Amino acid sequence: MHHWMFNCGEVTRLVSESLDRKLPLHQRMGIRIHLFMCKFCARYSKQLKLLRGVMRLAAEERIVTDFFEPLPSDAKTRIQGVLGREIEDSHPLKS
Amino acid sequence: MNESKKEKEVQGLDPKLWVDQYGDYLYAFALTRLVDRNAAEDVVQETFVSALHSMKNFRGHSSEKTWLTSILKHKILDHFRKKSREEKHHFETVGGNIRQLFDGKGHWKEGPEKWKTSPKKLFEQKEFLKIFYACLEELSRRVAKAFVLREIDGLSTEEICKVLDISATNCWVMLYRARTLLRQCLEVNWFEESADGVS
What we know:
The structure holds two protein chains of two kinds. By secondary structure, chain A is mostly helical.
């Protein structure tokens, strides 16, 4: 039995899983050997890491506010109204 | 608590300015994670209202913006939790699509193309993010959420399990589906379309 001989379907699953937890040694070895021999899975692995890199950038404020449109003005007005009423309720005007 | 002490504690917070000062940022933050515009507006509103009622908890250790963002993060997780209960019985259809990528022996039918790019380069192209989010919307909602929580917010598998109420194994499978299908979708819609994307 070659436990460490994986096909592409298995390797892609394990490559993905390795981004979420530490795999047992025999699986890590199996992946390595496979990636060395298979250019498609090697690309797959590289591209998943690239996607992770892109997503981590999306967590950065400057980049995100550059990309997305601002809060629509009707939503602003609505939220401002809700907030205004809540403020009045929590601090009723007293003479 | 008397009024003057209360005033003192919430010094520096001005709820009347919140929407103008932080509305756009919080909306973008929410949109990055929720994709859905209405849902993003809703959580931003909930955040402001809930912040207003917990102003006395603001200790001034962080900035007003950081404080509001942390409330927003909780609102987004709440939203994910609520929705995932509703969606739980929905059939996940994406599993089949992955199997179609490989033949009976588990080899690629059509292997991945080479991508010549970097995260920074990709992010500079607004068109890429548009396509990326369109691809994300193609995934089942729960799979997309698992991906967002893991890759944008860097939550651990355990934390994602709690939010989405799934097992760890299920979580790894969902993330595998998300990554593989997103990769596929991007290759077809972005890398094969853009001239310098593929070698």
